[in-house]
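Input.
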Amino acid sequence: MTMKIGILVGSLRAHSYNRMVANTIPDLVPTAQFEHIAIGELPFYNSDLDQDEGPDAVKLFRDQVRAADGIIIVSPEYNAGMPGVLKNALDWASTKAAAGALIKKPAAIIGATPGPRGTIMGQQQIRHTLEGVQALALPYQRMYISEVMHKVDPAVGKLTDATTNKYLQRYVEAFVQWIDQVNLLDR
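Output.
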């Protein structure tokens, strides 16, 4: 059975560098099926709205997260932290009405930035939140892409730097192995 991996992009910008990285992932690991899971239509989290299955956009989002064998988060860093739209999505995916769509869900974190340090601080916040919602973040490995504007081709909307693509491929392959390990431990 083909592994199904959901991809969340923590930027809503149409020409986001992180979206370009996310668009590249399916080309690098053809053994898995990837699905982009949109977060832009989710309302701000409000427990008053979190009744039954929640609003339609939330229900769709939660169903897509539940159906995935694992989740890859590809996100920029805003002001040394996680983008608010991503935190909002993680909150919706983890609430009681969702029966914890992220509980025991394998997760990986990738981040791209024009800056020289990657997305170190933002990824720390994402990892902390994933731990709080009981998701299982890929341990010991990090994927930071710095100076990304020199590594993408906006005309095709993908990451084109050969060296970075090689590292990204290795990272996603390690994540696929992590999903397999988590599934063995969960039996």
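The longest helix spans residues 162-185.
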